[in-house]
Structure formats: structure tokens, C-alpha cells
Write a structure and sequence with these properties.
Strand content: 15-25%
Helix content: 40-55%
Largest sheet: 6 strands, antiparallel
Structural class: alpha/beta
Number of helices: 17
Length: 556
Amino acid sequence: MLTHILVKDLAIVSSLELDLKAGMTALTGETGAGKSILIDSLGLALGDKADAQMVRAGCERAEITAVFDLKASPGARSWLKEQDLDEGDECLVRRVLMRQGRSRAYINGRPASGTQLQGLGEYLVDIHGQHAHQSLLRASTQRDLLDGYGGNSALAARVAGLYRAYRDRDQRLRRLQSESADRAERLELLRYQVDELQSLGLTSSEIRDLDHEQKRLANLGELQGTTARLLLQLYDGEPSLHTGLSHAIADLDALSSFDEHLSATRELVEGACIQVEEAAGNLRQYLDGLDLDPGLVDQVETHLAQVHDLARKYRVHPEQIPERLQEMCTELGALEQDDTTIGTLAQERDQAREVFLTTAERLSSARRQAATDLSEMVSDAMQELGMAGGCFTVELSRVEPETANAQGLDRLEFLVSANPGQPMQPIGKVASGGELSRISLALQVATAECGKVPTLVFDEVDVGIGGGIAEIVGRLLRTLGGARQVLCVTHLPQVAAQAHNHLQVRKHTHDGQTFTAIEDLGNEERVGEVARMLGGREITPKTMDHAREMIGRSQN
């Protein structure tokens, strides 16, 4: 529910800050005092279109901040989590209007779009009356109200889930069937390609080894000649490096007898001589192992040419051929599986459709009973609300099974005749805004226990009524306030007296500027405000007593 609102420099409001409570709250004041400013501010905070002219004269920006308690709003919490905007049990929405430039919005301190504000607002506040923020006009809201009233929300959710399961199977089956010809050609091609690549029989490392072997065999003559020359230089030739090092060792042996400091040098030369001898042995062994078979060279080059031809054909590097083969095998397996799946999937699709239609029939039957009960309840309430002879009905029209969807087998619409002799028409086309407000009130009271939006705002639902009917409106609002938070802008004392809480709007002028303020009234202050609404400018003791009696009677 809405717990706090702050408004700065909006229209005739310089600064306004309010803590709001649960239950029914009446918002009253003189005509023209700006009673709707709170509702307008709330609408702006929740994504209503902003106008730079709404910024207070002499100011460059206006700001609205609204704080909501989400403990009883699981839908809002889920939405915030999906948007990665959740901050626990509280939500802070902020809207900044600029005289120059675009307005800005924030949800829990993070930038948000107008669409996001509107999406969140659908879970938090419903504004009824002559206002654009009116969810009751949406077909989805009407359907949810009926299902909630009849206790069919879980069944409706099951129907929607069964429809999605049927639709997913049907779409997949259609896709497989439409692709059957192309799939057959693709299967034939893949089988040929897999066989071709499997015939190569090489791993990525083996392909790299084959490439290295080809390079070695292609340069066999150079390897042989250079190795033989190095062997002569190191050991087999005369003179050789080994022979020179051996003579150096002998000379150092002789000199070391004269000066022992040369012993370390002699050891180094001796180590070099040993390493040269070992290197010569390695070269000799390598030279003996060189394969001079020309047939092996042809075999390797032929195999490597096959590798490169396939790499070019499949547009991959030679080392990526095994990876490409694996991809083809995976696709081939999936396509072969699809061949066996079509028959099974067709059977599953038909079974899913049968279960969906059977469950949708149950929902349709339950909806018809709920529609009859709700129509009677709202029509009776309309008689009490000053619309004698008026009628409300929930019209359910059946759709063909072939066109059924996630909403089931029913097309639903709320129809109203506000006066005797008038034809039934969609609720959104009711001529009078006041009549629409009262019908909305009757619906909200009838479905109070199943409603999902925690805060309801009724903007002047008492237009065109008075006397006993006004008291009935007040009682209905108070009853609704027992289940959800209700904010009501009213001109009638009979309605205001029923409220759990009372806010008074005052307008005053200072230094040539107009200001609006809203005050939370205490008990005696509230009596005075109801008396003003009863008696006008001249308040007598009898008027005060009457106001006190009205408030006391409503509390009891």
C-alpha cells in the first residue's frame, strides 16, 4: 500500500509531504482547493504523461516521490525482481518533471522508463473515476476479476499452462512437418559428409603430426647432408672439434703441473669435449635413422593433400576437421531423432489438446455460474447507488475450439445499462463518469477479497448523488477499506464521515502566490470539516452536533 508521498513544486503545491494509513481515507476541501492534486501526483509517479506546464510557476522542476509497502503485494515484488529493481519489502518511486527537457523517473534509486512505471503501477494502485489510469476497462482485468470472484484463478492459470503446452507441441510438429522435404535432403548430405570425414580417421594432433612429417620428408636431402657435414666438423673429420679439444686438454694437463689455477679451465674444456662427443653420437644415430624410402614421401604427401582438400571443402583449418565432424554427427543425430519424433509428437500434441479443452470446459462452466452471481450482486448494488433500473451483466460468448487460447473457450465483456430503457453496452462506453465510478465501486466491493491491487483511489465517486445514496456509497467505501487501502476524493459529508482517516485540502495566498496544503485531521478537526461540508460558511452548534453524530454512527 501507499505509505508516504512527497510533492514539490507541482502546479499550486510548493511542498507537500504526507504519511498515509491503511483503511479508507477521505480527501476533502473547498471547491478549487486542489483536492485532485494528490491523485494527479500519484498518477504521474506511476507513469502518467507529464506536461512541462505542470511545473509550478517560477520553478525549473517538479518532483514526486511515492513510497509503497510491498508486504501484501507479491505481484509487485515479482515484477521488481524480474526487472532487477527489488529492494525488499519497500519500493520508492520518484518522478522529476523538467520545465526544459524530458522528465526523469527512478525506481528504488535506479533510472526507469515510463513504461516501467506503468508496469509497476498496475500492481500497486488502481484509480477509479474520470481518469485514464483505469484498469477496469481492460479485458484482462475483467477476466481476472470474474475468475477471482468465482474462486477460479488457479483453474484459469492451469488452463493457460495447458494451452501453452499444447501450443508448443503443435508448433514444433508443424515446423518438423514443413521441413520434412528439406530434412530428407539434409540427412542424405550429412550422411555422405560424415562418411567422407570419418574416412580420414585422424585426430587434430595426428593432423598436426602429419604436417610436420611431410615437412621433414620434403627436406630429407638437406637434413641428411647438413647432419653428415656437422658430424665431420664435430668428430669424424680431420681435424675435428673433438680432436682440437682433446689436444687442448693435454696442453692444460701439462700447464696445470706448473700452475694449479688452470685446473678449473681444464675441467671446463674436458666437459665441452664430452658434450661434443655426445652430440656427435646423437647426430650419427639421427643420420642412421633417416628413412630414404621415396614411397613413404608419396604416401604422406597424398594423405596430407586429402586433409587440405577436405579443409578447403568444408571451409575450416585442417586441425578443425575433427571438430567439424563432431558438429555434423550431432546434427545428424538430431535430424534422425526428429524422424522418429514426428509420430510421437503428433500423439503428444493430440493428448495435450484434449486435456486443455477438457479443462477449459470446466473453467467455462465455472465462469458461467460466477458471471450470473456477480451480475446479480453488482446490479443490486447499482440500485442502492442511485442507478435505479440500471443493470450489469458479465457477457460470456463461446469461441470455437479451433480458436481457443490461453484464456480458455470464453470471450468475456462487462456490459452495463445505467438507466431503464438504455441498451446494454460495454462498461467503457458508459456516458457518465460518475456512473462509471459507482459501477467500479460496486465491482470492487463485490470482489474485494480477490483483488490484487492494494491501493484503490476513487475520484469524486459521489458526483450527482446525495442523501441516503451518498451514505451508502460511504459505507461501501468503508467496507472496501477493511480489505484494502482506499483513497477517496469527495464533496459529500455522508461519504467523508465514513472514513477511517481524513485529509483536508486548503488553498491560501501569500505574497501574490497561491499555495495548496493538505492536513491530516484529528477527531475534533474532522468534526469541524464535516460540519463545514454540511452547513457551508455558517457553522452552528447544531451543525457540529450533526457532524459529530454522523462520524460516531459510522465508527459504530
